[in-house]
Design goal:
heterodimer; A: about 525 residues; alpha+beta; 5-stranded antiparallel β-sheet; 17 helices; 13 strands; B: about 90 residues; Alpha-Beta Plaits; 4-stranded antiparallel β-sheet; 2 helices
């Protein structure tokens, strides 16, 4: 029987036993009957002895040990061994947590700090708590608490290089539960679980990033700008004209035509989908038509007439696979309008360009705007070329989690754009935001996402290597402008995320500035003039 | 008579008492202190030092009338002895 009593005592965890011993030795002493002191004293000593033994045993082996294996591809596996001491700590935390949260009949509500009620700082026996909560649930809570305790310690090993939120516990939760399968969910022995973590890719530069040289094709020079401005002016002027339906004559230059357009490849006879268009509206009087030969082909057509003629696609056609291809165009003329263009007088100048008082001023302003536009385009093209060049010499394995995160961001940006542009209703957007759609997007656009990630990784590495600094004012300004942008569209945002993003944006901009300073940039003349 | 212990009491007070070998349980109202002592000693082979009993306040049932009364006993065993039923 004596051994049975000892066994029942040992089920109370060491800390509880210690607390019980301490309590008996202080608070309750005055109320003790005179027949018991020797026996109580004996107990106390036994408790204290048991406790000290535990501590000694724990001191030798109460550290979480981690074994690190490199899996390649930016992945590291950590094998974490959790000693019994840590598990006991986790279980004790759970006992206290549940006791604080639940009201067990027959016991005062537990409060760790000691409540107002008498005995509020006495933890109910472990068995009672486990029974009340349920063994399964309690075990799960213990396992989770154990992870909470051990994972941060394990992650310290790779804290310098690990990517945020990339850790993944590989061991199944059921296996972790087995650790707490003892009586009253006591730990049964050391637990080993494995975690995979993604680490910052080690970047190898295949070239010297300080001596980048890029060639940027200029989107336009003064000459093309002037032409473009003239075209814009003409289009706007024509936009002010009055339309009249033409029935009695063929199509003439200067008319507005509406037609159905179709094209087949002259060699393979396969239809070209990108060109097929119904009710395509063409202003034959516009200064520039992207497809030379089309107007020549349709001149003189009458309403309802159909004509087929070959056109060789120009070399600067947007779709690369169509450049230089000879296609047979079939045009079905639907409607013809005669455009009566008003004379360019100063009266209509303000309609051509807002706030312009004379035609000359309007032309000048359009040219100015066009030049600005070209400049911005050139800058963007330069940036793209620089980053691409940087990404090309950056050889690094890309962590899957970053790729996925970037893909998701890109997708949500697309959604946001669609929402702001109000092209889609909220229902459609919700449908598009379904996980399957996002996964599909990630799968189909893997290459482009990876390219962007590579650029980002390269820029970040550059930022780090060159010790580029961001001043606080710049950072604040960026945060404020980002916040304003969100508020303008009334979109919800997460402040922490916003700050992070602002930091990233500023880093990217600074890296680009650095690149532009250090790289050799050759600006080639516009495509048409080479 | 093997189940003369009607119910083992697990409350804050009873668990506190357990630490000094005092065991709390409910028994039939008709049992006297001496009966309880002999029964525990015979059935579990332990030495009982003292028996304290009290009758709980009567409780009314939902349909009128009074619920069956029980007697609560707190027995103190000799140091080192224990009742397995309380494990």
């Amino acid at each position: 029987m004596a051994s049975s009593s000892a066994a029942s005592m040992s089920t109370i965890s060491s800390a509880a036993a210690f607390r019980a011993g301490r309590r008996r030795s202080t608070a309750r002493r005055s109320r003790a009957t005179p027949t018991t002191p020797t026996r109580r004293g004996g107990h106390r000593r036994a408790d204290a002895a048991r406790f000290s033994v535990r501590v000694v045993a724990a001191a030798t082996n109460d550290e979480v040990t981690v074994k690190q294996t490199d899996l390649g591809d930016c992945k590291v596996r950590l094998e974490v061994t959790v000693p019994t001491a840590v598990q006991t700590e986790a279980r004790q935390n759970c006992l206290e947590g549940f006791a604080e949260k639940t009201q067990i009949p027959g016991f005062a509500q537990y409060k760790k700090s000691g409540g107002r009620k008498k005995g509020a700082n006495v933890l109910p026996p472990a068995g009672v708590i486990v029974n009340f909560v349920g063994e399964k649930e309690f075990g799960a809570a213990c396992a989770e608490e154990m992870l909470q305790l051990s994972l941060p310690k394990a992650m310290e090993v790779v804290s310098a290089t690990a990517l945020q939120d990339s850790e993944k516990i590989e061991t199944s939760f059921d296996d972790l539960l087995k650790a707490f399968s003892g009586k009253e969910c006591e730990p049964t022995g050391d637990v080993i679980y494995s975690v995979t973590v993604e680490v910052v890719p080690t970047i190898k530069w295949t070239g010297d990033y300080r001596k980048l040289s890029v060639t940027v094709t200029s989107p336009g020079d003064d000459e093309t700008d002037a032409l473009e401005a003239e075209a814009i002016f003409n289009t706007r002027l024509r936009g002010l004209g009055t339309m009249r339906v033409v029935v009695d004559r063929g199509l003439e230059i200067g008319d507005q035509a509406v037609m159905d357009l179709e094209a087949v490849n002259a060699e393979t006879r396969s239809p070209i989908d990108g060109i097929k268009q119904k009710k395509f509206s063409l202003d034959t009087g516009a200064a520039r038509v992207n497809l030379p030969g089309l107007i020549d082909g349709i001149i003189g057509m009458k309403l309802g007439e159909q004509r087929t003629f070959p056109i060789t696609m120009p070399n600067d056609w947007p779709q690369a696979f169509l450049r230089g291809v000879t296609a047979d165009f079939t045009v079905d003329l639907r409607e013809v309008f005669e455009n009566t263009v008003p004379d360019p007088t100063d009266d209509i100048a303000s309609q051509i360009y807002p706030d312009a008082t004379s035609i000359a001023e309007a032309k000048e302003k359009i040219l100015e705007a066009q030049k600005e536009n070209t400049k911005a385009m050139l800058e963007q093209a330069t940036n793209e070329a620089l980053v691409d060049a940087l990404a090309a010499i950056c050889d690094a394995p890309l962590p899957a989690s970053i790729v996925e995160e970037t893909g998701r961001q890109m997708y949500s940006e697309k959604m946001l754009e669609a929402q702001i542009g109000q092209q889609m209703s909220m229902d459609v957007i919700n449908q598009l935001a379904a996980p399957e759609m996002v996964d599909e997007y990630l799968r189909t656009n893997k290459e482009s996402i990876e390219l962007i990630v590579r650029r980002t990784v390269a820029c970040e590495e550059l930022f780090r290597l060159e010790n580029i600094e961001v001043t606080e004012e710049e950072f604040k300004a960026e945060v404020v402008s980002a916040k304003e942008e969100f508020e303008r569209y009334g979109t919800e945002y997460d402040v922490q995320r916003l700050v992070e993003q602002a930091g990233e944006v500023i880093e990217a901009r600074k890296s680009l500035d650095w690149l532009r300073e250090h790289a050799t940039i050759t600006i080639a003349p516009p495509a048409g003039k080479q | 008579m093997i189940d003369f212990i009607k119910r083992v009491i697990v409350t804050q007070k009873s668990t506190t008492l357990l630490e000094s070998e005092r065991y709390t349980f409910d028994v039939d109202v008709h049992l006297k202190k001496t009966d309880i002592k002999t029964l525990v000693e015979d059935l579990y082979g332990v030495q009982v030092i003292s028996v304290n009993t009290h009758r709980l306040p009567r409780k009314k049932s939902a349909f009128g009338g009074v619920r069956p009364r029980t007697k609560r006993a707190i027995i103190r065993l000799k140091s080192g002895d224990s009742l397995p039923i309380f494990d």
